[in-house]
Write a structure and sequence with these properties.
Blueprint (H helix, E strand, L loop, with lengths): L6 H11 L7 H7 L4 E5 L2 E4 L4 E4 L2 H4 L8 H13 L12 H13 L4 E7 L2 H18 L7 E5 L8 H6 L3 H4 L8 E4 L4 H4 L5 H19 L4 E6 L15 H11 L3 E5 L13 H4 L6 E4 L11 E6 H7 L16 H17 L1 H18 L7 E7 L2 E6 L14 H12 L2 E2 L1 E3 L2 E4 L7 H21 L6
Helix pairs in contact: 4-14, 5-14, 6-13, 10-11, 15-17, 16-17
Length: 457
């Protein structure tokens, strides 16, 4: 089998045959990359037998780490009993039905309907279809525009990437004409003169201005992550979300909370909208719903939206072959059972996240850290040359890339986003392992400071 080959052979085949997401193919063809071959608890091991503490929970998804035998067993038993059936033609499967019910039990009380997809990208594509169908049913077919945020991420299909505000992605395709973007609530990068709460209101009012510019009778929805994850763990000021929710209510604009990263305990409560105390009309989920063991995503739909969709006898012409896949739903059921039996969301909020936040924020004292921000089990560090001016260490975010590579050298997997270092560790970390994460990250910061000639004293 290929997996039994030497590390060098594996890397060569990978370099020549496998196309990776978000990758410079010319560069990868020359240098290749890392091949991960096994994982246990919160550690991954590559083909060179190098072990890394996974400070990113896979891709924000393995919140319970890599050693959950009950999820493995649920997948095996489902494969043996019913490996597949579709949700078309007035059919379903018991795993999908059970999973939908289990989600409704933990979601905010007004979200009682589930549409399953295979990913967050597909779920956000689904949101577009649901939003447009909703306003068509209300006799408001002109409400088609959807507003997102600059530097927001909602997936990489053409529709989902159009909702997102990643400029470098938009350069490579023609986006949907009815998507628009506003300022993000990124206080550290975008504001010097206002305190965080005042800036939060400015960022929120950018939504009101955009709706008024387009005309409220043309705007269908606003989509945003409670905390921008892939954009750099942008934690909004406390003033931001209450103002945004009111703006949407007052202007008859649906509010979509993209919880692909923030959901299932990551922000300290089951969902980020609960952390920031707002009620979305639609909620996108994926990633942590199965602990990354199977691909599963979806949309939680509010009673308000569903009442309208059910008011007319019109087929919702949308769906996927694998919507409600029984094996993925079995993995999701087993994952939710672990969350509930262990009350790990409560433990994160009341204990582990407090410890992680304390240790992470101590990094603000490092000479190249301009800001250390956290919420729940999310953290970001802004790398700077000068704290007062916020001048960056190097152009084109080279310093964060260097720091990430040094972290990997020291046995820690973290991520570089622009000039920030970000982390989203698993909930099953011990406090000693949080200390280990911080210690290894400090070594990378020290290396980076020396590399760019910054005095560490």
């Amino acid at each position: 089998m290929i997996r039994d080959l030497s590390s060098a052979a594996l890397k060569e085949i990978d370099r020549k045959t496998l196309l990776h997401p978000f990758t410079d193919y010319q560069q990868y063809a020359k240098t290749g990359g890392r091949v991960v071959t096994r994982a246990e608890h919160i550690y991954i091991t590559d083909s060179d037998n190098k072990q890394l503490l996974d400070g990113m929970s896979g891709l924000w998804c393995c919140s319970l780490g890599y050693s959950q035998p009950s999820i493995n067993l649920a997948i095996k038993e489902q494969l043996e009993r019913l490996p597949y059936y579709n949700s078309f033609f007035n059919c379903s499967n018991d795993a999908a039905v059970s999973m939908a019910n289990a989600l409704v039990e933990i979601l905010p009380a007004h979200l009682n309907h589930i549409f399953f997809t295979n990913s967050g990208s597909e779920a956000n594509d689904t949101n577009i279809r649901l939003v447009h169908r909703y306003f068509d049913a209300l006799g408001k077919p002109g409400k088609k525009n959807i507003i997102g945020r600059h530097n927001g991420y909602h997936g990489s299909t053409i529709a989902a990437a159009s909702l997102g505000g990643m400029g470098y992605m938009h350069e490579q395709f023609i986006g949907l004409t009815y998507t628009h973007h506003i300022q993000q609530p990124y206080w550290y990068e975008e504001c010097r003169d206002l305190d965080a709460e005042a800036f939060g209101l400015v960022a929120a009012n950018a939504l009101a201005a955009k709706i008024d510019e387009l005309g409220a009778d043309t705007v269908a929805a606003f989509i945003a992550e409670p905390i921008q994850g892939a954009g750099g763990v942008i934690v909004p000021p406390a003033s931001y979300w209450p103002a945004v929710a009111k703006i949407c209510r007052d202007r008859d604009v649906l509010l979509i909370s993209d919880e692909v990263i923030c959901g299932f305990g990551r922000t300290g409560q089951w969902f980020g909208c609960q952390t920031y105390d707002f009620e979305p009309d639609l909620l996108t989920f994926a990633k942590g719903v199965t602990n990354g063991y199977q691909p599963l995503g979806g949309v939680a739909v509010s009673d308000k939206v569903m009442d309208v969709l059910q008011s007319q006898s019109v087929e919702f012409a949308h769906g996927f072959t694998y919507s409600g896949h029984p094996v993925a739903c079995a993995a999701g059921l087993a994952t939710l059972e672990i969350y509930k039996q262990t009350d790990i969301v409560g433990y994160v909020a009341q204990d582990l996240a407090l410890y992680f936040n304390t240790r992470w924020r101590q990094l603000a004292d490092h000479p190249i850290v301009g800001e250390a921000r956290t919420q729940g089990m999310l953290g970001a560090l802004e790398l700077v040359r000068d704290k007062s001016s916020r001048a960056r260490l190097a152009p084109e975010s080279k310093a964060s890339i260097y720091c990430r590579d040094r972290a990997i050298h020291h046995g820690l997997m973290v991520r570089a986003v622009k000039d920030s270092m970000i982390s989203a560790p698993p909930y099953v970390c011990s406090k000693a392992e949080i200390d280990l994460l911080i210690d290894r990250l400090v070594k990378a910061l020290d290396d980076t400071a020396r590399h760019y000639g910054i005095n560490e004293s």
